[in-house]
Design brief:
By secondary structure, the chain is of the alpha/beta class. Helix content is 49%, strand content 17%. Helix 1 crosses helix 8 and helix 2 (32-41) packs across helix 4. Residues 59-64 have low confidence and may be disordered.
């Protein structure tokens, strides 16, 4: 089984390479549209997906309170649930960061030059070269801002990737063939049962965190862990017994939670 993440720059060849990878390896492709539909199925409206997806929260979004963090938690839970299949090609959305501790995931960064991207945008969307360049610069800034907001890391940090490809010297077919050859190498491990179970626990942890953030709980004092499948530990401090009960009720409502272990202490004046 092969699990690959593709990180591309907007308007480049990453999507075309990802499609050839998925076809060549016989695995599912999780592109923007599919990932966004999975996020929407978990209760995030489409207009919010458009506002937050691979964008750092803007000035006005800061007045929306918890919504950017709820979106991020749901997105991350979706990535973990997708990865739990043990195979597939995942496009962007921080997947290279979320799965970097799993040695069964292979992370590829695809770069395309501005000239190549401008040519694509001008041909595909009928834009002038000047308009295409402005759009590319805007989306690059948004993508970089999202990564800094979500993970406090630089998107182009080479340590996040196992393979970096520049399409100025390699065409789509050659790049895809190179990644397929690497993916089929004996050096790459199949995701172990332990790794898949860890992804499942992380997915549930993110869903619980999203539910608590959405219910306006102070997540600076409440912490969530999922030590085993279906079992959620919450601990920390709350202002009163009612808040503790609210936390516990919200956790129990999250699909996939079969057992709750609560270690919340009531401390007045916090």
């Amino acid at each position: 089984m092969t699990l690959i993440t593709i990180t591309q720059n907007f308007g480049g060849d990453g999507m075309a390479i990802a499609r050839k990878l998925a076809d060549g390896l016989g695995v599912e492709l999780f592109d923007d549209r599919k990932l966004q539909s999975l996020v929407q199925a978990r209760g995030i409206p489409s207009e919010e997906i458009g506002r937050f997806d691979e964008k750092a929260p803007g000035f006005l979004d800061k007045f929306m309170g918890s919504r950017p963090q709820v979106f991020l938690d749901i997105l991350e839970s979706v990535i973990y649930e997708v990865a739990r299949k043990g195979e597939g090609v995942i496009i962007g959305h921080g997947s290279q960061m979320l799965l970097r501790d799993f040695d069964c995931a292979f992370h590829v960064r695809v770069f395309s030059s501005n000239k190549r991207r401008i040519d694509h945008m001008a041909a595909q969307q009928g834009l002038s070269r000047e308009a295409a360049l402005k759009l590319i610069r805007k989306r690059d800034q948004e993508q970089s801002g999202f990564f800094n907001f979500a993970f406090h890391l630089e998107l182009n940090d080479p340590s996040l990737y196992d393979l970096i490809i520049h399409t100025e010297k390699l065409d789509v077919d050659t790049a895809a063939a190179l990644i397929i050859q690497a993916a089929r190498s004996e050096c790459l491990r199949t995701c172990s049962l332990k790794a898949l179970e860890a992804m499942e626990r992380l997915a549930l942890e993110k869903k619980v965190h999203a539910a608590l953030v959405a219910s306006s709980m102070d997540m600076n004092t409440i912490f969530v862990e999922v030590p085993e499948k279906g079992t959620v530990h919450v601990y920390g401090i709350s202002h009163n017994l009612d808040d503790t009960r609210k936390v516990e009720a919200e956790v129990r409502r999250v699909p996939g939670v079969s057992k709750l272990v609560s270690g919340i202490s009531v401390v007045t004046g916090v």
